[in-house]
Specification:
It is a single chain. The protein is α/β, with parallel strands linked by helices and about 325 residues long. It is about 45% helix and about 10% strand. The protein has 16 helices and eight strands. An eight-stranded parallel beta sheet has the order 7-6-5-4-3-2-1-8. The structure holds phosphoenolpyruvate and magnesium ion. The site of phosphoenolpyruvate has 10 residues, from strand 2 and helix 10. It is found in: Cytoplasm. Belongs to the PEP-utilizing enzyme family. This is phosphoenolpyruvate--protein phosphotransferase.
C-alpha cells in the first residue's frame, strides 16, 4: 500500500474516468511544510495560523508572523497556500487574549472565537493582515476567514486588509501580485446567504468539523457523540450538495477542508455529491489519491443521487457495499 501511495506522489490526482481532483493538505506549522513534497499534495488548502499563537507564551509580534508566512510561502514554491486568519478564543483560549468581562463560556465552540475575536480586537487582525500582505509581496496571497456567519463579517474583515494594503501602497512596499479572498463555510447560517456572499469571494472552504457539530448540535469534542452522527449522513451530504449548487457558475472554488475529506468512504461520498477539491491531513493524501484512481465519478454521482433522493437506512452500509463491489 505504502509503495502504491508513494508511486502516486508525483502523479496528478485523477479519478478512474479522468476527472482531475485537487488534493491539498492542511498545515499549521513550519515543520509541516516538508510534507508538501513528501505527499505530492497540490498545495496547502488550510494553513491554520492560530497554531503560532497557541504555541507562543505571548502574542506573536507582527515581524514573527511575517517571517512564518514568508517561510511557508517559500517552502510551498509554486503551490498555493490558503492562510486562514486566526481561529482562537472559545476552546482555544489564550491566556494573553482574554475577553474583557471574561468568565468561562458555557459553549466555547459557539462563543467568542475566530472572526468574532478578530473583528473586535482589530489590532490583532490588522497586524495579521499586514504580516500576510508583506510576506506575500510579489506572489499570490490566498486569505480565508474562519467562522463567517453572515456576509457583513466577511466585508468587515476584508476592509481591514484593504486598509493595510492601502497603507503598504503608500509606503511603496512590494505588494502581492494577486489577492484572493475566501470564507470558511462552517456555520450553517452562511449557507443561506451564498447569493450575497458569492460575488465577493474567490473561494469557499467547507469546514466539516465545525459544520457537523452545528448541523447536529453535537459537540465535536464529546466522545460520547462521536459515533452518533455520521459524516456520511444524508443530511450533511444534502447540505454540501446544495452549497455546491448554490454557487455553481459563480466562479467560486469550493473545497472541503474538514477531517472527513481524508477518510476513504467519506471522500467517496464527497466525490459523489460533486466535490472536486479537498484539503486533508497529510497522511491521507496518498490513500485518497489512490482511492480516486478506482472511482468512476459518473457511477458514484448516479448512486449518490439515488441515495439522497431516497435515503437508505444506512448510507455508510450502502457506500461500503458499493465500494467493495468495485474492489475499492
Ligand atoms: C473545520 O471546522 O472543519 C476546520 C477545518 O477547521 P478547524 O478544525 O480548525 O476548526
Ligand atoms: Mg472550524
Amino acid at each position: 500500500k505504502q509503495a502504491a501511495w508513494a508511486a502516486l506522489r508525483d502523479v496528478e490526482p485523477r479519478t478512474k474516468d479522468g476527472v482531475r481532483v485537487t488534493v491539498m493538505m492542511n498545515a499549521g506549522l513550519r515543520d509541516d511544510m516538508p510534507m508538501l513534497s513528501m505527499t505530492g499534495a497540490d498545495g496547502i488548502g488550510l494553513f491554520r495560523t492560530e497554531f503560532q499563537f497557541l504555541v507562543s507564551a505571548t502574542l506573536p509580534a507582527r515581524e514573527r508572523q511575517t517571517r512564518l508566512y514568508r517561510d511557508v510561502l517559500e517552502a510551498a514554491g509554486d503551490r498555493p497556500v490558503v492562510f486562514r486568519t486566526v481561529d482562537i478564543g472559545g476552546d482555544k483560549a489564550l491566556p494573553y487574549l482574554r475577553h474583557d468581562d471574561d468568565g468561562d463560556e458555557e459553549n466555547p465552540a459557539m462563543g467568542w472565537r475566530a472572526l468574532r475575536v478578530a473583528l473586535e480586537r482589530e489590532g490583532l487582525l490588522k497586524a495579521q493582515a499586514r504580516a500576510l500582505l508583506e510576506a506575500a509581496g510579489g506572489r499570490t496571497l490566498n486569505v480565508m476567514f474562519p467562522m463567517v456567519s453572515e456576509p457583513w463579517e466577511f466585508d468587515a474583515a476584508k476592509a481591514v486588509f484593504d486598509a493595510q494594503l492601502k497603507w503598504l501602497k503608500g509606503q511603496r512596499k512590494m505588494l502581492p501580485q494577486e489577492i484572493r479572498y475566501g470564507a470558511m463555510l462552517e456555520v450553517p447560517a452562511l449557507a443561506e446567504m451564498l447569493d450575497v456572499l458569492a460575488p465577493k469571494i474567490s473561494f469557499l472552504s467547507i469546514g466539516t468539523n465545525d459544520l457537523t457539530q452545528f448541523l447536529f448540535a453535537a459537540d465535536r469534542a464529546n466522545p460520547k457523540l462521536a459515533e452518533r452522527y455520521d459524516w456520511v449522513s444524508p443530511s450533511i451530504l444534502r447540505f454540501i450538495a446544495r452549497v455546491l449548487k448554490n454557487v455553481e457558475g459563480k466562479g467560486v472554488d469550493v473545497a472541503v477542508c474538514g477531517e472527513m475529506g481524508g477518510r476513504r468512504l467519506e471522500a467517496l461520498a464527497l466525490i459523489g455529491v460533486g466535490v472536486r477539491r479537498l484539503s486533508i491531513t497529510p497522511a491521507s493524501v496518498g490513500p485518497i489519491k489512490e482511492l480516486l484512481t478506482k472511482v468512476d465519478t459518473r457511477e458514484i454521482t448516479e448512486a449518490m443521487q439515488g441515495w439522497l433522493a431516497n435515503p437508505p437506512a444506512s448510507m455508510r452500509a450502502e457506500l461500503v457495499a458499493w465500494a467493495s463491489a468495485r474492489g475499492i
